[in-house]
Specification:
Aminoglycoside 3'-phosphotransferase, Chain: A, domain 2; alpha+beta; six-stranded antiparallel beta sheet; single chain; two-stranded antiparallel ribbon; Phosphorylase Kinase, domain 1
């Protein structure tokens, strides 16, 4: 990639390249901070799995919509020909404005509240924006996704040769069936184009204020509460946690959950059905992402005996404490209405 920088920038009216530095955060694309005669920019070299022109244009339309609403999405820099991305030798590139800022700090309560409030603002501003390409994407998480994962795991775990895992697989299938039934009771929940990857490394802070929300590669049409559930998992998980074998370190901190939901509902009014569904979506995400971690292979046969008990411990915790999460959500919503 480094040898291509000059050629890439040659397709833009940004002046001569002065410096370039690979950005370490980000797990999929090859990202660079570049400085030219005209200023500093963020250059993204897209991963092969993220090279659909219709999706890229839809993501850029989303970012433009948000910027018009005053939301701190980065501006896309057009090529010399006016396109929002560049195709060069079969590779895909795009350049955004460079936003100076620091990442989320779990030790700063003000960052938690700002992250929650900004997510609420995103969900407010994105209303009415629904590019067709983003509406046609598969769900990130759902009971159906979970059931599909379990089908693949049954084959990978070779249950006919490993009967000790048979009961474990059955317990996971009971979880999937239970979640499908519980979420079906809540009917159609409010949908919107979620950010899809709203976590600390995609938030840029100036002090305690968010000045940039970046990386819209996972944006898609989903129930709003799915993104809220995933945000609660990221921002309010206990630290340090007690789990060692899966992607999650532990369960949720109820104090942090309350703090997050109070700040979030300053910007968004949740329906009672969304609040009731929230713990079930948390359980769904925990199960899906633990068994099939993002950017990693399915849980292996070798890892399963020690890892699955931790997965099931999270699922049981979500079942046991569902009413506590709902109570916190209702209290936060009441705080908004009072």
């Amino acid at each position: 990639m480094e040898g291509q920088l000059g050629r890439v920038l040659g397709s833009y009216n940004l002046g001569e390249l002065r410096t370039a530095r690979r950005i370490k955060c980000g797990f999929v694309n090859d990202n660079w901070a570049v400085e030219t005669a005209w200023g500093r920019y963020f250059l993204k070299h897209r991963h092969p799995h993220l090279r659909r022109p219709d999706l890229i244009r839809a993501q850029h339309d989303l970012m433009g919509w948000l910027r018009q609403a005053g939301f701190p999405a980065p501006a896309v820099v057009p090529t010399a020909s006016g396109e929002t991305f560049l195709m060069l030798d079969g590779e895909f590139y795009e350049i955004h404005e460079y936003i100076e800022g620091k990442h989320y700090d779990h030790n700063r309560p003000a960052h938690l509240e700002e992250a929650a409030l900004t997510l609420g603002r995103y969900h407010t501003h994105v209303q009415g924006c629904a590019p067709q390409a983003l509406c046609n994407l598969d769900a990130l998480y759902s009971p159906v996704v979970l059931s599909t994962i379990l089908v693949h795991l049954r084959a990978a775990w070779q249950l006919d040769q490993n009967p000790d895992l048979t009961q474990t697989a059955q317990e996971l299938e009971v979880q999937a069936t239970d979640l499908a039934a519980r979420l079906a009771r809540h009917g159609a929940l409010p949908h919107l184009v979620i950010h899809g990857d709203y976590y600390g490394d995609n938030l840029l802070f100036d002090g305690n204020r968010i000045v940039g929300v970046v990386d819209y590669d996972k944006a898609r049409w989903q129930p709003r509460v799915v993104e809220l559930a995933e945000a609660l998992i990221y921002f309010t998980t206990e630290r340090p946690g007690h789990l060692k074998r899966i992607v999650y370190s532990g369960t949720l901190d109820f104090g942090a959950v309350h703090q997050f939901l109070v700040a979030y509902t300053d910007a968004v009014s949740l329906s009672e059905s969304e609040i009731q569904a929230l713990p079930h979506w948390i359980r769904t995400i925990w199960l899906c992402a633990s068994l099939n971690p993002p950017l990693e292979p399915l849980m292996s046969l070798e890892a399963a005996p020690q890892a699955v008990p931790e997965v099931l411990a999270l699922a049981r915790w979500a079942q046991t404490h569902a009413s506590d999460i709902v109570e916190i959500g209702l209290a936060a919503q009441k705080n908004l209405c009072s």
